Amino acid sequence: MRYRLKLIALPIVALLAVSAGFVYVHWSKGGTGAGLYSRHWSPDPVQGYWDPENFYQSTEIVEGIFEAELCVQCHEGITPGIVADWRASRHALNIDPVSCNDCHGSDHQQLRLPTPEVCGKCHGKQHGEFQDEARYGFPSHVLAMERALDAPHFADKPKAEVQSCVQCHSVATKCDSCHTRHRFDAAEARRPEACVTCHSGPPHPDDETYFASAHGQLYRAEGSDWDWSKPLIKGNYKAPTCAYCHMDGGRHQVAHKSLWKFGLREINPHTSKNQVLRKRWIKLCSDCHEESKAAQWLTDLDQERKQAWKKLYKAEAVLKDLRSEELLRPAADERPPYPMGSLWQRERIGFFEGQASAFYNVSAIERDYFEMWYFENLGAYKSAAHGSMAGIKSGHDKMAASLDRIETKAKELRNLFEAEQKGEIAPAPSELWMKGAYTDYNRDHN
Amino acid sequence: MRYRLKLIALPIVALLAVSAGFVYVHWSKGGTGAGLYSRHWSPDPVQGYWDPENFYQSTEIVEGIFEAELCVQCHEGITPGIVADWRASRHALNIDPVSCNDCHGSDHQQLRLPTPEVCGKCHGKQHGEFQDEARYGFPSHVLAMERALDAPHFADKPKAEVQSCVQCHSVATKCDSCHTRHRFDAAEARRPEACVTCHSGPPHPDDETYFASAHGQLYRAEGSDWDWSKPLIKGNYKAPTCAYCHMDGGRHQVAHKSLWKFGLREINPHTSKNQVLRKRWIKLCSDCHEESKAAQWLTDLDQERKQAWKKLYKAEAVLKDLRSEELLRPAADERPPYPMGSLWQRERIGFFEGQASAFYNVSAIERDYFEMWYFENLGAYKSAAHGSMAGIKSGHDKMAASLDRIETKAKELRNLFEAEQKGEIAPAPSELWMKGAYTDYNRDHN
Amino acid sequence: MRYRLKLIALPIVALLAVSAGFVYVHWSKGGTGAGLYSRHWSPDPVQGYWDPENFYQSTEIVEGIFEAELCVQCHEGITPGIVADWRASRHALNIDPVSCNDCHGSDHQQLRLPTPEVCGKCHGKQHGEFQDEARYGFPSHVLAMERALDAPHFADKPKAEVQSCVQCHSVATKCDSCHTRHRFDAAEARRPEACVTCHSGPPHPDDETYFASAHGQLYRAEGSDWDWSKPLIKGNYKAPTCAYCHMDGGRHQVAHKSLWKFGLREINPHTSKNQVLRKRWIKLCSDCHEESKAAQWLTDLDQERKQAWKKLYKAEAVLKDLRSEELLRPAADERPPYPMGSLWQRERIGFFEGQASAFYNVSAIERDYFEMWYFENLGAYKSAAHGSMAGIKSGHDKMAASLDRIETKAKELRNLFEAEQKGEIAPAPSELWMKGAYTDYNRDHN
């Protein structure tokens, strides 16, 4: 039955999508953008550095075909820093060195920025593991750029702001997010700084929560004396870092042990699949701790999650009631539409309905819930997972305050509606909402 | 007269306490919790690690009696990191080494986690000083666990959240909060990271305020090159750290110079007792600075405190007026009771009435004052004490904003009451408040 | 025409200023304060350390004339740390050492704290460049103290709070803000910690935004291994620091490349002057990056600024409308006056009208705009300039929320006014506002 429904639904969805003009567009150098909403944005030049495969264009200021020695000779004067980095790298020190033109090409008018595929030619294991993460879906590194471009708010917001998201999402489309050029050092990428350049702030305060933990403080105090050339295995490090736990043994597949879907949705800790993931964590933690202690920590984390989801579900229920009573103002059809919004506008509440895209152009109470779920809940989760005690407390304090606020606002909305019904107050005119902060000058900047 | 009052009051209090069922319960392994509210909570397994004397139970996975060499031989493979740490420690390098079984025992089915008493057998001076701090009352390290367990909100909140408090409060019941296992290095504990793992975030932003200071920034820039094996005395360090000032000379008695009671209450800077404490600070600061400058800094701090308490007292007066006019909503008897609440519920406003416990289940305006006093005031204080200029400014800005908010809310409460009196508005039903965010699912999780 | 207006305006302004009693007062040791509002404050003793030229008085505890060896001999015991620092300094290691009395004088009753002029005797180039920055106006290091003392709120706020501003502003009046005593190491001042002691928090989150960038994280991870004795030029450092970019080549003139006036006001990126500054940046960035990439980053920053100013101008327009309709409550003449306020009180909205001083005693909606402009906008700017992706996003999110709040409050103010006109509500009594949090106890503390 279910399968038959799909058989029917798929062509209908496709038909609607095509008729509405939303077709996944292959990326092209120059010209329009990329992804589902490619018609709605055009790439900024900087996109060439973040997504070189699709958008990089060589600057063409020098003409000629050059081999390694000549590159180095000239760039020694122009950009000595990167030459020095390369000289200190394994690429240069190899018996058969990996030289400038091996990665960038030789024709200076056609230089390329290396994509993951270029690096993968030699580093096949790492590249394969990185690609393999796609099967866990999003969030994952490998899907980071694609999913950003497929989000309606990518095309709907001023480029100047969206770029603040995309720079980090470029982790999918180039390797130097973690292995900075031109040393490309594994030792560097093992340190937490390689990760927290992106993994900080809401909704993923990995930086703040790790460094607030005993693990993080040990790193802060003593990390500069550790031998970072050692692989990430048992006995080599006094305290774990991002990579030690999430990329244990050097595995380039970060979602491999993801138990709670990063706090984004409730999971059932009693499934056999969950037990498999759990055992991976316990094995890892017992590099230093008793197995039983590791298991208890995970149970404590389950408990924290249970409390968090109780609060979230209460808030979500309030919003869904308001929606069914048509009390959300502005309603979806009174809001500035997303590019995809013209077909079917609907208030989307909660993870499964896709609220991840509902950053903008929603009513105040929906935004409150969004922040509760996406910022406060994830902050509490990361705190519990990484061992930031103050973060757990403040996260749950904030969630309790948000729940209160949402309940108060819901009551006000009902009172307002009642007053409107009695004719005491005139309803706010719809067009009011159509002129939100993001509405007037968006499209022409994308 | 006063003494006779005590003679009468004590048995009455005892009688009331017993009849209400609140008797201080001796702690027991397994079974119920500990402290005044032991009946209301049961220990989570992780409590065994935070309070080993009372709750740790050996995991019993291995049978047998082992001496040091055998322990090391086996754990070299299982947990090589902690073995490496121990090998690098003074415990191992001693002529007469302190081995695994000296601290943990030999019977693997009866292993213990070392308590402060175990460490104190050799480190009697440090342990004695640590214990001695009790005479300064709370806040102090040695009373941290006991006083947490004696706080009503310990039993009243979901365990998952309370644990975020207790993990740090375990500084009272084990030594590895500062001297991490298994190197137990004095050098490590001298560095600020040993402290700020706990001392960060509201209400004790020691981390943020120290690192915002010139002292802290000097440590950040150059601390990794300092010789941390040197004792904490004059001439050994270019800039002071937490321990240099608060544990000068290695003294394990942190409250020894506490001038302003950590900002929690107003003190009189002109008492002779205060002058004694003040001289201790000036002596310490003059390890590097002119005495007269040190004295001036302390006077500046007095001034900052005076401004802070002016703001706090204004806010407190607003609240006490509201209480005497019975305008606080919900009133104490309309709130979900604390475990101790059944006997005598009363709005507690300000430090001396015990507001430290009033985190939850209070009215909005009481919570505002609590946050002003406990978070914003203490943030301003720590900023002034540690030298974070931006923190003083933002702390006082926040306090001014809170005072405004409290005055506005008080006005609204009076208007609301008037409207209720005139019959314009029906009073909110009491039961509304009994279903707060923390009320429904607390007890069964404790 | 314009010039003639000036000819007329200048003497009028002077006449008004003199008749109102505000004349720039020369600073004097002891006695009254300094600057335009010198009559309204008296210096705290600590001011002697922050502005030694004008306020330092030797402590006079020791009598006698001493040369270098005797100074060191005695201070070796009293303050060994600073002696050790000096011994390790270039001052001591010079063939012709710079000794204690060279900077402090020899008469212990008349010791001086060295001013920039004292340091400038040997370090003429650096001192000259530092002084030269004055031609760029404020913000600049060299004018930091003077302009603080010329701000009305300096005299209007409790000293205890104002000092949190002045400590950093003392960068103008002594050199050890960056080169800490007594090593006075260039290497130390090259590290970001030398700067972020002051440059952190709103309104100048340089600390937070730099360390959130890839540049900052590289420094965090590896900076302790870099050779900081090297000058700040191409090829010497793997990642740039504050000083590398803003004081390139060691230039003590930080505003030399200031493109966007630190985000404080909108600039026109198309002027020839701006193109000159832009080329300085591109030249600097191309020490490591492609020129074309550097130029694109600057264009991206222009775009971010454009979005920011659109939001700011919208908010400013709302406030100016309210002002022209006389709907701001409290109005300027209902507020506690600034010292300069007696002559001409007026709501000052926006940068050009001088809102930088409007921290206090303004209406809620004016304060909202002030925070939007001074904290959120500058936070977004610094994030964009320093490469903190999360900061751009959160800055613009906050600005959008502020704009919403301002629009909502404006509507409420209009409704309130209408209700007052209809006689439904009595206007708030003016004296209410005259008792703000800062009004009652200011003057006697200054």
Whole-number total of structural domains of chain A: 2
List SSEs of chain A in N-to-C order: HHHHHHHHHHHHHHHHHHHHH
Give me the secondary-structure category of chain A. Answer: mainly alpha
CATH first level of the largest domain in chain A = Mainly Alpha
According to CATH, the fold-level topology of the largest domain in chain A is Hydroxylamine Oxidoreductase, Chain A, domain 1
Poorly predicted runs of chain A:
17-30, 441-446
Which percent range describes the beta-strand content of chain A? under 5%
- What is the mean pLDDT of chain A? 85
Quick structural overview:
Chain A has two domains: 21-276, Orthogonal Bundle (Hydroxylamine Oxidoreductase, Chain A, domain 1); 291-445, no CATH class. In chain A, 50% of the residues lie in helices and 0% in strands.
Please render the helix and strand layout as text:
3 copies of one chain form a homotrimer.
Chain A: H1 2-20, H2 47-50, H3 52-55, H4 68-78, H5 80-87, H6 90-93, H7 100-104, H8 116-120, H9 124-132, H10 144-149, H11 152-156, H12 159-169, H13 186-190, H14 192-196, H15 206-211, H16 214-222, H17 242-246, H18 272-285, H19 291-324, H20 364-386, H21 389-421
Helix pairs in contact in A: 4-5, 18-19, 19-20, 19-21, 20-21
